[in-house]
Amino acid sequence: GALALLRNLRNMQAASVPEATVFGALDAMKTDRVLPFRFIAAARAVPQWEPQIEARMLAAMAGGDKLPGGTLVLVDVSASMFAALSAKSDMTRMDAACGVAIVARELCEHVRVAAFSEGVALLAPRRGFALRDSIVGSMSHSSTYLGQALATLEQTQPIPDRLIVITDEQSHDRVADPKSPRAYIINVASNQNGVGYGRWTHIDGWSEAVIDFIRECERTPAA
Fold it and tell me: Which helix (H) or strand (E) element contains residue 162?
């Protein structure tokens, strides 16, 4: 299957499997149930095959229905985001967050991406692994000030139709109700308590269906 192929690319490279064979398998695999963070992990394992891995990742999202209007995706890059997803996982919360951001970048009609820690930065309009690199390299990874980041963006940027925050919900400051008519906090950690209350739609965890879930939520007019 596709997931097994991605997980074994390093072994194939170590065993000197011909690149033509590997690339042929990548081209043929069914990727409709593989999240981008799995491609991120594969590219980290075999960086020399990153172009081929990225092509399959983007192809998996091509042709999907786009969320209409303007979307701002805000990604937490604080130090806690680099913790492992679980005790047995070699994936980090940051990998998951970048994966969700890559999905949103492809499936939103008009999208801006920003990152925050103690500060906040609006990122260049990149996609795929270039977006991942831009997110991770946007600033130093220190404390989490989501409330401050939201206030800064609301003062300096147009208010989007939709705000999607990807975080582990460990903010050091108060998170006010958003000004955007639609606002979501996607929690990529398993903390008992979070910050996504008030007028936020809170989503615990992530999957290939996150954007589908948001689309279904928006079938009901905003309050």
Answer: strand 162-167
Tell how far CA 162 is from the center of its chain: 15
Phi, psi of 116 (to 5 degrees): -145, 150
The pLDDT value given to residue 85? 81
State the Rg of the chain over Cα: 18
pLDDT tens per residue, range 50-79:
999 999 988 888 877 789 999 999 999 999
Which residue in the block uniquely carries the two structure tokens 């398998």? 25
Q: Within 13 Å, how many C-alpha atoms sit on residue 179's CB side? A: 13
* Signed CA dihedral, 13, 19, 21, 24: sign only: positive
How many residues would you count in the chain? 223
Q: Sign of torsion, CA 115 214 96 59?
A: negative
Pairing of strands 162-167, 120-122: unpaired
List of residues 6+ apart from 14 with CB closer than 8 A: none
Instruction: Quote the CA–CA distance of 50 and 198 in Å, as a whole number.
Output: 41
Assigned token pair, 212 = 């589908």
Q: Rounded to an integer, what distance in angstroms lies between the CA atom of residue 71 and that of residue 113? A: 8
How far apart CA 71 and CA 42 sit, in angstroms, is 28
| Interval 166-191: pLDDT, tens | 998 778 888 889 999 999 999 888 65
- What is d(CA 31, CA 115) in angstroms, rounded to the nearest whole number? 28
- Look at residue 86 in the predicted model and tell me its pLDDT: 78
